[in-house]
Design a protein that fits this description.
Structural class: alpha/beta
Distance between the termini: 24 Å
Pfam family, one: MBD
Protein name: Methyl-cpg-binding domain-containing protein 4
CATH topology: Methyl-cpg-binding Protein 2, Chain A
Bound molecules: zinc ion
InterPro entries: DNA-bd_dom_sf, Methyl_CpG_DNA-bd, Znf_CW
Order of helices and strands: EEHEEEEHEE
GO molecular function, one term: zinc ion binding
Strand order of the largest sheet: 2-1-8-3-7
Strand content: 15-25%
Keywords: DNA-binding, Metal-binding, Nucleus, Transcription, Transcription regulation, Zinc, Zinc-finger
Radius of gyration: 17 Å
Helix content: 10-25%
Largest sheet: 5 strands, mixed
């Protein structure tokens, strides 16, 4: 999803390029094609775990779409993070030192919002979004998986990221 966005003038921090969910039965990882679909799965992951057969023509007998390994850096999102409200976009960028992912929302008016406080102010100032509340948003960072952080000599080449909805 990152590849299609217009590039900002200065190099941006790495963002998510692949979405994946882990099957609750066979534990294989399945790629999820869009952020929206991924957020839908993630938003109710505890009540409705993900299984291979949620993808068309896929079963647990098929090989995994993607392996959890250090060929890319993995970040694991918290299950049941709310689905991004219509018109908003939730973006995540990884700090260059791999310490943390920073979350921000882009509002339908094009404003970047980086915290619950900023968001509360935005909602107050924009009564057209009065049906939304701060709890429809989450600024909780996904966990950057230490064992998939590249060693320093491959840092320059590490712009591939995956987000997942594993429960760990
Ligand atoms: Zn499976």
């Amino acid at each position: 999803m990152v590849k299609d966005s217009p590039k900002p003038p200065k190099p941006s921090n790495p963002s998510v390029s692949i979405w994946a969910a882990q099957c609750g039965k066979c534990l294989k990882w399945r790629m999820i094609s869009t952020q929206e679909e991924f957020e839908e799965i993630r938003s109710k992951f505890i009540e409705e775990p993900f299984f291979c057969n949620k993808k068309p023509n896929v079963s647990c007998d098929d090989p995994a779409d993607i392996e959890y390994d250090s060929s890319r850096t993995w970040v694991i999102d918290k299950p049941n993070t709310p689905k991004t409200p219509n018109g908003f976009k939730r973006n995540m960028t990884l700090r260059r030192d791999y310490s943390k992912m920073d979350i921000y929302y882009v509002t339908p008016t094009g404003k970047r919002v980086r915290s619950s406080t900023e968001l509360a102010t935005f909602l107050q100032q924009n009564p057209e979004f009065s049906d939304l509340s701060v709890s429809d948003f989450s600024f909780t960072s996904p966990k950057v998986m230490d064992d998939t952080i590249p060693s320093s000599d491959v840092l320059a080449n590490s712009n591939k990221k995956a987000a997942t909805s594993n429960t760990k």
